[in-house]
Amino acid sequence: VISGTSCVNGKLYVAADTACLPPPKADGCTGYHYRGKNTSNKQMHAMRGTGHNKSDIDSVSKARVFIQQSHFADQKRSSKMRLISYRLAKNLEKMVDFYSQFNPSSLSIKQFIDFGLKANEQKSYQFLKKELPVRLANIMKEIHLLPDNLLKMPSVNLVNNWYTQSFNEMIEFEVDDGCTEQTLDKFCKILVKIRNRHSDVVQTMAQGVLELKDSHEIDLHTENSIQYFLDRFYMSRIGIRMLINQHTLLFGDHINSNNHHQHIGCIDPYCDVISVVKDAYENARFLCDQYYLTSPELEICKSIDADDEPIKIVYVPSHLAIVEHHKTDILPPLQVTIVKGKEDVCVKVSDQGGGIPRSLSERMFHYMYSTAPQPSKSDAHTIFNAIVFTILGYGYGLPISRLYARYLHGDLVLLPCDGFGTEAIIYLKALSNEANELLPIYNKMSTRFYKTTDHTIDWRSTCNHTPISQQQFTQTQ
């Protein structure tokens, strides 16, 4: 059957309600005879008496039956495909609901290191094939609680599809009880695929927020919901990537090409804090030189350890805001103080960039606030501009840095001195067994935050006659 036609005995017939017969061979008829869906037997007998031979009429009948059967078969296949798609969607929804009931397992750096030293791929596989769907499902449930206008943004929809696809790929292993070499190899490759797919999640979600700002007015409730969600969403992403990176670095194909022999996966248990500070400074300096055409020098003031041993930390953020205050080629240096106490490793970065008003200190950690120009699509044509605007234009530098510090129960705080400069203090856990993952959990309390539009005002200030809520008060502490 091609384009609604059928070929019988070398003749072409139209597959329609009135499929035409071939011209009669006898002289008793000069036109076409039609048989619709409701043609009766009497009509067929009448047609047989008009000069058509019986074989032609029987062939048309058979062709019509064949066409109808093909049409019904196509309809049946189409209905079956729709039913399968519906069932898959419903099944996916049920699977997400099921896995979101479980809390993610929070691990410590010590657990990561201890497990990495033993490096048992089968145990890692057995853990991750259950843990990753739980972490994905928990945050996927919160994605669906976002304001409808934000969910309709193309970039947000793209991120949602990435998570759905990754969740589907992970639950395929959940029902697989086998632990063969082929399964382990496939699992590792899927993890790499998921990591690559999610590599641009931060920028894409940020673009979605910009799309919302450009197309809709954003009220206070929507802004609070977005801030609350993005903190949890990006923290979840950090935790998921930590698990994936550990497994793929320990058991992936490129393990033998890793030059960092002392690393355990992506963790360096003997990382020199001064080297980390200098590396972060050089990266920030490169961007400053390219974007501002100048950059400050680095001055490490102190490196104190109660045990007189080198201080070991894993992460320190960069600071870029100093340049815009001093519009000259001579910039005061960045001063870095590093201290290791009994509980915390503290890294204090001090600048003379003019500081910020104290009223804006918390706004600096808001995803919808930035002092740098917002990026446009035309600005991201080059790799450098894409990097610069990812760090500056989206306004995500400080909030993302704070999440990385808080991920292992540390913190990042700003102490501004308006008119002079700002101090940024990073707190990290000194003991690896206390550096536990901080992970978002989907539950009734988190759901209630998205749905509550009127946060109770239980504090009042005469300044600007603006009362504040308990949540706002807590954020300022």
Structural key phrases:
477 residues, alpha+beta, Butyryl-CoA Dehydrogenase, subunit A, domain 3, 3 domains, 9 strands, disordered N terminus, BCDHK/PDK_N, BCKD/PDK
Approximate shape: globular
- Residues in β-strands, percent: 5-15%
* Computed CA radius of gyration, to the nearest angstrom: 33 Å
Please list the strands of the largest sheet in the order they lie side by side: 5-6-7-9-8
According to CATH, the homologous superfamily of the largest domain is: Histidine kinase-like ATPase, C-terminal domain
Could you please say which CATH topology of the largest domain applies here? Heat Shock Protein 90
Catalytic activity: L-seryl-[pyruvate dehydrogenase E1 alpha subunit] + ATP = O-phospho-L-seryl-[pyruvate dehydrogenase E1 alpha subunit] + ADP + H(+)
EC number: 2.7.11.-
Family: Belongs to the PDK/BCKDK protein kinase family.
Organism: Aphis craccivora (Cowpea aphid)
